[in-house]
Amino acid sequence: MMEMGTPDKTQISNTISHFEDSPVFNYLNSLSPIKPDKSTHVAQPFSSLTFALLPSIFASPQVNSHKESRFLKRSQELDLENAKDQSENESKVAAVNFANNTTGQNENGTELPGKFYVTINAGETSISPADVIELSQTLKYDSGSPDCNSTSPKENAECHPPDGLHLLQHSEDHESKEKGDAEGISGQNRELMQFSLDGLDLKSTDLLIFSSPNDASAFRGLVQISPDTSNGLLASMVPNAAQHEMLTASENRRLLLHQASAVEQYETEGHSFLSSESHFSNGDAQTEMDECFDKGKGGDTKALVPYGSKMSADLHRGIRRRCLDFEPTQPNQKICDSSLAVQQVTDNKESKDKRLILVKQGVTTEKRILPGIGLHLNALTSSSKTFKHETMLPDPSSQLSTADQDNLNPVNSENEVDPTVKSLPLMEYDPTCASMNYEELNQLSPRKKRHRDLSGEPESCKRCNCKKSKCLKLYCECFAAGVYCIEPCACQDCLNKPIHEETVLATRKQIESRNPLAFAPKVIRSSDTVAETWDEINKTPASARHKRGCNCKKSNCLKKYCECYQEGVGCSINCRCEGCKNAFGTKDGTILAGADCEMEEDSENCEKSAVAQKNMELNDSLLLSTPSELNRPVLPMGFPPKAKQLRSSLVSSSYSIRPYQRTGGSGLLGPGLKARQTNPEDEIPRHTLWRCSHHWPNEGRLSYQQEGLSSSCGLWFYTGSTEWRPEADLEIDSGFPFTLLAQPGVNSLFENASRPSFG
DNA sequence: GAGTTTGAAACT
DNA sequence: CAGTTTCAAACTC
């Protein structure tokens, strides 16, 4: 499979321009986590650089394709001595720290509340406050946006440069981050910020730093500047179609590898940092990352963000997130310091091989190499966390050839990799850990730490205590979570470590062969409707259901023995539990509001329960009152036979989705989807079957909402492997206006696919 | 911290 | 597929 996952960018651009006003275009935009916003054409030359934030829901372990060892090898390839040539080569690195104090989501993606400070350091590496350029609060996401109401020519230049620097603006509701919910990041809250820095005089600029006036909501990214590009910041990374050749895939990979290695090395230097290798976040990790940043100690930790969707995507793919291990970090070791900068060094021998050198407080530390692309903008919002690198688990299912792995081929053999997936954050992030400061974490025993999980913590911070399984069975939480065991684990004879990569991979493969969904999330958060706020998302435990259901006999689903209860979700008909009293909802559909909230976080979960009950009741009534639902066949969920159809819910639990409103008629299809509309002339509700003709890159969901039915029916596309499950077609009653929703993964699928076909 | 309980995972 | 065993987390004391 080849170019499916890597569509020609020029073609895409042209297509976009042609369809800009078409429903298809709108539809695609509606699906995209990136706000369509204005002047898409402006971004075209740099489309490859636009980030697409991806929720963790697409972070299935199965899709990870890169082996950690590859990164390590690449890390070793990093020639630090070449860093000495940085000045000679006039390498330029821009550490772009984006900050926005956005307090709410950006509905149309055109406004970016908050301020941007651009610090330009013309000197070696020092950062002078005098060099700070404060950008207008109205700095627009889109460089081409007419809304870029800069009040000064300089600002305008930044807003409308010939060569756009496209950066993903991660605008999110800060409060959602406070929730500590791993799903707190909404696509709605992620905006693509595209602005060019070409207008800036960067000839003598080694550093370009966007400092956040508000650390709490700041997000930062590292952007490297091409050493051989004088007219455009980031030109090397953001190849201008008119001036630069697009970096080849291998070059991009190399660049990424170098950057990843830089982080790795930096870590080895004793610095706490998010490793591009291990901290690549996928999916939910975005939010989690935000959490880490928000709540970390010191408040100076910054996320280094991968830049360039293509490159980052390459690297992202196959990255497994790993729990972050918060360790005490000396203040001077925090690379995520406000004064942090990264300098890129270009190898004379290979101009396109770029490395980043960490520059801290005006001091260039060659050994402290950081990747400009090592971190994701997801991490952007926050301020401060200390991270410890942890290796990630490669995706055993990716089965890349050695060559591919060495090259970190961004496109796997199946090529269904969507840009969005590729642009997963290059960092490991532990939301769980993020919810506490370091001391708190370390004071907790593994057991107590686990208790944290009940409060909505994700699985990324697993700490096992395996004694016999060698952490190579699903008994092991770490292994089951697709992560390597880490130091806090108390496991014995652990083989779930990078040094046993082959064993781990083989074992995973074996288990997956037995059950393709073995490493898939156990709890499916149905997303039947558009969540308007993160609060909604965070309060809908009942909207989720355990994938397989529990089998509790004695716990009455009131203890964490019950996986459903443990995950904070209600039991469903999939459950074979006896005497179910799950506070989040019993399998018979009732919620025992106020029932035994025996969990430690009683109040919290009782609250969840109440909300869940409300949602469930409403959903149930809606479902029953929805005529089309009666006509609609039960949708296969793509789950094992035991799986049952998910209960519909009113609130998206994972990501906000930008709906595309469409009224009636035939289905509006995105690329890769084939609509099969049944007899449009029928008076009875018609159905449109949305079928994805592509291999599903990971997991995701496609849901819809129909106005006339006031009911939201969701469908999860879910694959344990990269295989698309044809049974997961989405049939829509096209007789009613409907809103088709999709997560970024779905969207990216569309983007990679050919033009949509109607009918 | 040790022992028990529990249910998922693994095995037959 | 069902029954049994193994395992580690959850829980109790």
Q: What this model shows, in words?
A:
With 759 residues, this protein is α+β, with helices and mostly antiparallel strands. The protein has 3 domains: 37-434, no CATH class; 462-514, no CATH class; 523-752, no CATH class. Helices cover 24% and strands 13% of the residues. The protein has helices spanning 9-18, 23-31, 40-43, 68-77, 153-159, 174-178, 249-268, 285-295, 309-316, 402-407, 419-422, 431-434, 438-443, 446-453, 477-481, 501-514, 534-538, 563-567, 602-625, 627-631, 744-752, and strands at 92-96, 116-121, 132-135, 166-169, 191-194, 207-211, 221-225, 340-346, 354-360, 363-369, 523-525, 544-546, 660-662, 673-677, 687-692, 700-706, 711-717, 730-733, 738-742. The strands form 7 sheets. It has a 4-stranded antiparallel sheet with strand order 13-19-16-17. It has a 3-stranded antiparallel sheet with strand order 3-2-6, with no helix packed on it. The longest helix is centred in the C-terminal third of the chain and has 24 residues, at 602-625. It is globular, with a radius of gyration of 24 Å. It starts with 8 loop residues before the first helix and ends in a 7-residue tail after the last helix. Mean pLDDT is 43; it is low at 1-25, 27-460, 526-543, 593-608 and 613-759. It binds a DNA duplex (12 and 13 nucleotides) through residues 447, 450-451, 464-469, 473-477, 480, 514, 518, 550-555, 559-563, 566.
